[in-house]
Every structure is written in structure tokens, then in C-alpha cells.
Amino acid sequence: MDIIERFLKYVSYETTSNEESETTPSSDKEIVLLKELVKEMKDLGLNAFYKGGFAYGDIKSDSNKSDTIFLMAHVDTSPDASGKDVKPRIVHFDGSPIKLNENRALDPKVFESMCYHLNHDLIVTDGTTLLGGDDKAGVAIILDTVEKILKRGNYPNIKVCFSPDEEIGRGTKGIDLEYIKKDTDKIYAYTVDGGEIMGFSYENFNAASAKVIAEGVSIHPSIGKNKLINAMEVIAEFHDHLPKCRPENTEGREGFIHLVGMKGLVERAEYVYILRSFEKDELESFKNAFLESKNIINKKYNKDLITVEIRDSYKNMKEVIDKHPYTVDIVHEVYKEMNIPCVDWPIRGGTDGATLSHMGLPCPNLGTGGDNFHGVYEYLDIDEMKTMVQIITKIMDKLE
Ligand SMILES: [Zn+2]
Known about the structure:
Helix content is 31%, strand content 23%. It is α+β, with helices and mostly antiparallel strands.
């Protein structure tokens, strides 16, 4: 199978993850593809098995190398758009809009990052489903690389993991880290998941969430003077005291506070927020702002009307990566030698690699050549996907 056949095969499986489900994987449909991947890995000559929602594979170096490369991609697709009956189509992008169907087109004036893919072959959707390049492109890249290097010979120790439920934040739940680290010396671990291949990511947000509750005093408005306290008014006042950095007015390395949910009655109101920052200190300052705002309001009313609960979610992988810079240095070296532009690309979110890093396996992310994820405008750059195979091969060739 060439890499395109591989990719087209994988997107024919519906693997949408399901937030409502409690099981791992969240959908039985993911298991079907995971087990197929086990079979494919066995056919390639890896020791492969399915365990608890994950497909694993490994093979020892044929040339007594002690380093190990670990590659991971997720098989699920985002529940934000349908992943059923995906009808992919290959088109050459000459700079003009690509018609997906009667009503929808991929227009480079709207999707500016298409400029990176000029004169490349793209795989696009029919405008009714997502493509599933996120992250079946990663799966195809990993297995194509492994297939080629096993055929060629002189490879390092290789370990592979295909995971479920990344899109619903559970991509490392139940992962067998012991197996991954077993019999290894130095591991070069990477997730292969993301956008343009020039983007290399070893930094992501630190994340927390906050639940704010306001207690009011309800009484008939006709007799409310000096007695009624409207929890919804109080919580709105609280909100007003928070720093004004929002996702809609921040970008790049700027952090934000984002209101994601609210419910309210006169008697009780609740706001839910997410807090994000690349800097630990800034995240702490956001948390402090919640406590300060609470104190201001409670002081004003001379009553503990507001309570704040803050919870940490995930952490920036950079603090771990910085202690193991070899995983980053080797990638920079390879891009430079291959004369491919490389931009260190902080992820304005979390990754499975971030979780793995904090579990003790430093794990930056390599791109796949995909774009416009989680929707009908998703597309994948075939040329970039093939270049990533060469990049990973070159990383492997540098291992000792
Ligand atoms: Zn992904």
C-alpha cells in the first residue's frame, strides 16, 4: 500500500469519538480500526497487539542500535463534524478556489494558510463531512515510514502506539507507559498530529478551569428594595472585574480567560471559565484575579455571596522538554539539513504529548500537512505528508 492508499483506507472507517460515553475507547467503531492496524503492523513484521483501547507495535533494531523512536497518532475524529461516509477526493491546488460541492468551496481568500500548499496535491472532502486527516494522516505517515525503513534495513528500535479519544481529551487514559518504556535506553518520542509540517511544537498551554457561584436573596420584586440580591447581577459584576484577555482578542503566546458556560436564577448563578497561558506565572495571576474579584464583591456586599473553585487541567510540556532537549535538537537538525523551514509553534491548547511529557515521556509534536481540522473544509497536503515520512526517516537515521 502506498501512503495515499493507506490514508484513503483509514478515512473509510468511521471513528468519531463520543464525549457522552464512559468507556475506553468511547466508541466501539474505534476498536475496528485499531484492530485492523494491529493486523497491518503484524504484516509489516512488528510485534503488535491491542490492549485497552490502544494498538501497540514494536520491533528491535536490526543493527544493534540502543536508541528507540516512539511514534504516536490518534485514530478517532472530532465529534464536531460527521466522520461517516467520508468521500475524499484528490485535487491539484493551482491557487484558485476548490469547489467541494454546489454550496461550498475551499477559497484561499478565506483560508489564508492555503498559500503554503500552492501547486501541491491535496485531499479534500465533498463538503458534507470532515476528512479525518486529523489524525489518520499521522497513522498513515507512521506506518508508511515503518514499512519503508523495515524494507530498507538499518533501523533503530521502533515503538508505535495508536490511541483513541484524543479529540475528547482522553487520548492517554489507560495508555501502557510501562510497555512503551520497557527495554529502552534513550527514547525519542513524538506525536504525529497537526498542521503544516513546518510547524514543530514542544510547547503548549498550562490550563485550569474555574467555577464561580453567586448566592442571591430572592424576594418578590414588588417588595425587594434593600432586601433582594440578584445573583445574576452579582456574578456579572464579578465578571467585570476580571482581566479582559479573551480568546477573541488574544493570539500567539498570549493567554486568556474564557467564559464557557453560565446558568442563573435570582437565587443562584454560576459561571464556568477556562484559563490558559503558556507561562505558569501568568496562569497564577489569572487565578489570583478570580480570588481578588471575589474579595471585592464579597466586601462590597459585606457577605460571602461569591465562591470560586479552581482546578488545574494540563500543563505546558516545555518544562519537561527543556530537561531533555535532545528530542527537539534532533528535529531542528534534520529540518536544517533537509532545508525545510521549521517554525517552533506553540500549541494554543493541550496535546497527548503534553500529558505524556508530564508522565515522564518527553513528547513533542510533528505536523502532518493537514489543515482546517474538525470540519468540512478540512484538507490534507499529500506532498507534505510524504515529506514528513522523509523527515522521520532522517530522524531515525540519526539515532545511535
Ligand atoms: Zn489530532
